[in-house]
């Protein structure tokens, strides 16, 4: 009898072993990963780094709060929070409904902006019923509205006071680019290769321009001109009112990050590690140079100096390194360079005389603060591990 | 190693198919499925035939088990005589098990190709062969009816289809005698007598449920692959079964001398049932021998 019963356990054991192998092999890939999203207000940086958002006072070198307050397994935040005078708006990548549910819940949150008080911000409202796929793009706040691009191909206009959905606009593919608001018009770029100009109050389309490649980052607006990065290996300049194309300038590979504008020039990098400066009016080339690794983020222009993050994209994740470069905006010559232990694909930001660089080193957030002029490392921060 | 030989070829195959098939990722997965089935066809055929043969031999196997219950060595000898190997009973689920590496590779390939996050898209650029212009292919259309192929089906349709088609393909391998065995007690008794058959029966139910569970969590594109693969498997199994039945219903084999002698010796029996059973047994034996020879 024993011999007859024992094999009946074997299928169960076999199934468990196979399932374990399968889940172990795939499980490591299940977690959504991305680069940290970063935004600033006064002396504070807000970093979405996966498991949450942390607010850090850079001038005082101290973390203020983190959200969610309690650890929320399976919940990921990578979109840079939108910082308004009254509130901070952010969205997550969605939370699985559990073992037996295929539906993930994606939530948009509005938190009270209590500045540098250090108190945990109160949650003003949240919406978990308006998006069905990740919030990858940073939201944008206008006077009474919040604009949120979703990976389920929609731009949502929500009431800033209570999150009520005012209108939505469907694009041909996911929106990864932060919507840009200017004088009653919201500009949104999509992976469907199209830049849309919409009326902010109604969502009505004013114009659209189709490019030769996807647009993963938002346009940069300066003096009535939109500078649009694209995977078509070019940047394009459009008149913000009419949508007329003014010029386009080449790159050697995808232009992923938004261009920086300053000193009458437009600066942008491509994923092959080439960096370009072109004339803002004509698009004529001024200078170009190459850097180590890929440039995915937007450069930062400040007072005649460009700050550029880049990183390796080949090899094992643990072995990939990055760098931060300070370049002279006039000719692209190197002012200083600092190696980082992981690729820098998040745009550097400036707080006072500090350059703040964020990256994930094998999933762990690292924040490096450099002295702007000298490039000296003045502070390092990582959130305490649970 | 894994990336070079499994993942990257899958990613590039999906992209090439996507390009050829008019930027339809569902069609890309469907044709990819057919290609995978084609590649694994020889193995699948062999295993399906072996599995069906094992099922058909069950009456004879049970008779031997019953007769030589107290003499395992003799039982093994008898098993060998009819070409029965208990381990082969497990072959029925092997086609499913060998799909695991494919599923794991395809799971990642779908996520990377569809580039659901910037990092995944960035990773894709590193895996695409030089002769493919990714810029022209992007963005990959991830919609198929109501589904985002990079996410689980929110309406449970695909998980249910995965369970049904997996069960159907499994059932086809193990149902050689099930239509005759409606009596549950008899089936239970059969399982007790033959634990391997019991195991196969258990797998028939646990595997579909397990894959259905996976389908709740994994991208719809992967579930589509599994449904299509199962449907091909069902068609393939049905053809093999029909082929085997045609072979079985061919000209009756002539009896061997010892069988004739044995039957002559028992000729005084007036029990028609016994005689019928004996004939059936000898046919079964001949059939087994014939197939053993082909193997």
Can you walk through the features of this model?
The complex is a heterodimer of chains A (386) and B (295). With 386 residues, chain A is mainly beta. Chain A contains 2 helices and 33 strands. Chain A has helices at residues 2-5, 9-30, and strands at 37-41, 44-48, 53-57, 62-67, 82-83, 87-91, 95-96, 104-112, 123-131, 140-141, 145-149, 154-159, 165-170, 180-182, 185-189, 194-199, 205-210, 220-222, 225-229, 234-239, 245-250, 260-262, 265-269, 274-279, 285-290, 300-302, 305-311, 322-328, 334-340, 349-351, 354-361, 364-371, 377-381. Chain B has 295 residues and is an all-alpha fold. Chain B has helices spanning 2-20, 25-39, 41-56, 58-67, 72-82, 94-97, 99-114, 118-127, 134-137, 157-174, 184-193, 195-217, 220-248, 257-265, 272-294; strands at residues 143-144, 147-148. In chain B, helix 10 (157-174) runs antiparallel to helix 12 (195-217), helix 10 (157-174) runs parallel beside helix 13 (220-248) and helix 11 packs across helix 12 (195-217). The interface between A and B is large, with 58 and 44 residues.
């Amino acid at each position: 009898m024993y011999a007859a019963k024992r094999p009946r356990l074997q299928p169960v054991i076999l199934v468990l072993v196979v399932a374990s192998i399968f889940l172990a092999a795939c499980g490591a890939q299940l977690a959504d990963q991305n680069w940290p999203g970063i935004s600033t207000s006064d002396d504070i940086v807000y970093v979405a780094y996966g498991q949450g958002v942390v607010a850090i006072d850079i001038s005082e070198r101290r973390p203020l709060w983190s959200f969610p307050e309690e650890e929320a397994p399976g919940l990921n935040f990578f979109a840079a929070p939108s910082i308004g005078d009254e509130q901070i708006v952010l969205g997550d990548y969605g939370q699985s409904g559990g073992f037996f549910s295929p539906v993930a819940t994606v939530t948009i949150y509005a938190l009270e902006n209590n500045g540098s008080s250090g108190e945990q911000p109160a949650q003003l409202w949240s919406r978990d019923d308006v998006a069905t796929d990740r919030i990858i793009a940073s939201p944008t706040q206008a006077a009474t509205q919040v604009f949120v691009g979703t990976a389920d191909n929609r731009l949502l206009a929500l009431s800033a006071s209570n999150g009520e959905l005012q209108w939505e606009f469907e694009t041909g593919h996911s929106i990864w680019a932060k919507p840009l608001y200017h004088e009653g018009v919201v500009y949104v770029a999509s992976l469907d290769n199209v830049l849309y100009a919409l009326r902010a109050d109604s969502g009505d389309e004013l114009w659209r321009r189709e490019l030769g490649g996807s647009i993963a980052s938002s346009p940069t607006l300066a003096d009535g001109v939109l500078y649009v990065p694209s995977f078509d290996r070019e940047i394009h300049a459009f008149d913000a009112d009419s949508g007329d194309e003014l010029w386009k300038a080449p790159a050697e590979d995808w232009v992923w990050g938004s261009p920086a504008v300053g000193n009458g020039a437009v600066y942008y990098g491509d994923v092959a590690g080439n960096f370009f400066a072109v004339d803002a009016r004509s698009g004529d080339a001024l200078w170009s140079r190459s850097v180590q690794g890929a440039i995915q983020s937007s450069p930062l222009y400040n007072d005649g100096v460009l700050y550029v993050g880049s990183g390796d994209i080949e090899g094992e994740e643990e072995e990939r390194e990055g760098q931060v470069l300070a370049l002279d905006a006039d000719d692209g010559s190197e002012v200083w360079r600092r190696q980082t232990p992981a690729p820098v694909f998040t745009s550097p930001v400036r707080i006072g005389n500090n350059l703040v660089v964020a990256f994930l080193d094998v999933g762990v957030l690292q924040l490096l603060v450099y002295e702007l002029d000298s490039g000296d490392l003045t502070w390092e921060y990582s959130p305490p591990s649970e | 190693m894994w990336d070079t030989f499994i993942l990257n070829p899958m990613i590039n195959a999906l992209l090439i198919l996507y390009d050829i098939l008019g930027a339809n990722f569902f069609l890309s997965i469907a044709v990819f499925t057919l290609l995978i089935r084609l590649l694994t066809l020889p193995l699948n055929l062999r295993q399906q035939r072996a599995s069906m043969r094992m099922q058909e031999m069950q009456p004879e196997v049970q008779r031997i088990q019953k007769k030589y219950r107290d003499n395992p060595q003799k039982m093994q000898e008898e098993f060998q005589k009819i070409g029965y190997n208990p381990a082969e009973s497990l072959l029925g689920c092997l086609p499913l098990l060998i799909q695991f590496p494919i599923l794991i590779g395809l799971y990642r390939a779908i996520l990377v190709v569809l580039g659901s996050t910037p990092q995944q898209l960035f990773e894709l650029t590193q895996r695409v062969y030089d002769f493919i212009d990714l810029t022209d292919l992007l963005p990959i259309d991830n919609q198929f009816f109501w589904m985002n192929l990079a996410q689980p089906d929110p309406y449970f349709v695909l998980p249910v289809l995965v369970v049904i088609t997996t069960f159907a393909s499994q059932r086809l391998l193990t149902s050689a005698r099930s239509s005759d065995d409606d009596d549950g007690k008899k089936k239970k008794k059969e399982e007790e007598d033959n634990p391997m058959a019991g195991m196969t029966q258990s797998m028939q139910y646990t595997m579909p449920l397990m894959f259905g569970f996976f389908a709740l969590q994994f991208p719809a594109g992967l579930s589509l692959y599994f449904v299509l693969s199962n449907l091909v498997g069902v068609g393939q199994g049905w053809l093999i079964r029909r082929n085997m039945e045609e072979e079985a219903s061919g000209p009756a084999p002539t009896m061997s001398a010892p069988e004739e002698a044995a039957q002559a010796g028992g000729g005084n029996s007036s029990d028609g049932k016994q005689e019928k059973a004996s004939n059936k047994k000898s046919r079964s034996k001949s059939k087994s021998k014939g197939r053993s020879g082909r193997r």
